[in-house]
Amino acid sequence: MNNKKSSPPTRRRPTRALVAAAAVTFAPATAQSQLGSTVANPSARALVQASSAALPNGAVTMRSYVDAGGTTIHEYATRTGLVFAYTWDGPTSPNLRKLLGERFPTFQSHAVTTDAHARASLHAGRVAQSDFVVEAGGRMRAYVGRAWLPGAVPPGVSIDDLR
């Protein structure tokens, strides 16, 4: 006969990695527009992470959200809903393919040709085309940047005012 005491089953705690993976997997997805498109209507789940505000002159609305890497992205749109600019600041670089949309291949090809300049200026880069401009830079865990359509910036709005 077995004289060992039977103990109740113990509940194991999930590891931190498992908890982090679940948080990323089940985090609310944000509806995201692209530069030059109209503002996507965020779902009710996306509104949990997103916030929006009208700038003082009323010509621009700003919607902010935090991406999966923890970077805060600000989306700027005209009264008609045209997304004309993005700014970002955070520990990771945002997914520029998603933000720039159809302009990404042009950005990518011009960013490669100016990569030597980026190395010389502490990882800061600028790609300026007639229809869009991207400025990005930073160092590990401190990335900043902005992208905009020069021809779509509303009158009375300065790109330098967008933070």
From TrEMBL:
Q: What does UniProt give as the signal peptide span?
A: 1-31
- What Pfam families does its record include? DUF2844 (PF11005)
Q: Which PROSITE patterns does the annotation name?
A: TAT
Superkingdom of this protein's organism: Bacteria
User: Which InterPro entries has this protein been placed in?
Assistant: DUF2844, TAT_signal
- What keywords are assigned to this protein? Signal
Query: Can you say what this protein is called?
Result: DUF2844 domain-containing protein
Q: Which organism is it from?
A: Burkholderia pseudomallei 1710a
